[in-house]
Amino acid sequence: MRFYGIPSEDRVMEILENIGEGLWVFEEGEKRQVLNSEEVKEKLKELVSLVREWKSQIRQLPASTPLFFVHEPSEPKAFKIYDLSSLGCAPSLNPPRWKVYRKELEGQLSP
User: Fold this and answer.
1) Span 32-48, mean pLDDT?
2) Mean pLDDT of 7-19
3) C-alpha torsion sign, points 87, 76, 99, 21
4) Residue 1 contacts residue 71 (beta carbons within 8 Å)
5) Residue 50 and residue 44: Cα distance in Å, rounded?
6) Which residues contact 35 (CB under 8 A, 6 or more apart)?
7) Which of the four, 10, 30, 37, 62, has the lowest number of CB atoms within 10 Å?
8) pLDDT tens figures, 48-107
9) Mean of the pLDDT values across residues 30-59?
10) Given strand 78-81, what is the order of strands in its sheet?
């Protein structure tokens, strides 16, 4: 699956409006929850608030730094969200801190 970086939290909020009905999986490390579409929107909104807080506190972090990535912005079925530990000089990103995806995609997301 190809993921696209979302350069602003306002754009993330717009994309959240396109989340369709159904069951979603929310993963944080080894923790896993199955949520309905409204619950997953709320979880993602909490993460948007957290990322906004990070960006407001760390002046060296450009506001356009994408920490949210989405598969198909017009019809989102999967998100990967990275934390500040993912930023750095490594040739690739650390695994995402959070993964959110449609239940039917279980097992199809790479780290």
Assistant:
1) 97
2) 95
3) positive
4) yes
5) 10
6) 23, 24, 25, 26, 43
7) 30
8) 999 999 999 888 888 888 999 999 999 999 999 998 776 665 556 678 899 999 999 998
9) 94
10) 4-6, 68-71, 78-81, 98-102, 23-28, 31-36
List the structure tokens of 52.
């906004």
CA distance 74 to 62: 25
Residue 44 identity (one-letter amino acid): L
- Asked whether 71 and 96 are in contact (CB, 8 A), the reply is no
Measured distance CA(33)–CA(103) in Å, rounded: 10
Tokens of 73: 């912005």
88 conformational bin, left if phi > 0, alpha if psi -120 to 50, beta if neither = left
Residues in the chain: 111
Report whether 6 contacts 64 (CB < 8 A): no
Dihedrals φ, ψ of 96, to 5°?
Answer: -65, 150
Residue 62: which residues within 8 A CB-CB, separation 6 or more?
A: none
